[in-house]
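Letters spell out the chain; backbone shape is given numerically. Both lines appear below:
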Amino acid sequence: MLSRHVTRLFSALTATAALALITPTAAHATAIGSTPVRTFEYSVGGMAMKVPTGCMFTHIIRGSGKKITYQNAGVDCAFVAALSTGFCNWRIDFTYADTNNRTYRTSRGKTHSECKIDPMHNNSPQRLPRYGRACAHLHVNGVRRVSQCHHITK
């Protein structure tokens, strides 16, 4: 189990280092971006839960122009965060906004009641009516905790 977490940590750190040079990204073919998940606490069934530092929320998008052929978002945790209980009552939503930052479409994910250290969700292909932004949002226990967006341009 520890080697799996070390491998995931190495992959996340490598991807994060590469992404630091290119975020935010214009999605002409493929865009990948990661955002750190800040430490937060919440309550589940009267029990206090804490998500420590060490998790990254990654959003991957593939396509061309206003056509999205693949979209995925999820969390990878390392260090102490990889040993925590994780995220309970979570869901991942995808939103689409125009160039004036007005959201015109939301693909709401299913709320998962189980606790998971590495929540992940794929969204269906999309044909967007206009250019703007595509974002993924992680909600935990009904509260949006982190978002990651890509610009959709010509």
In short: The mean pLDDT is 83. Residues 2-152 form one domain.
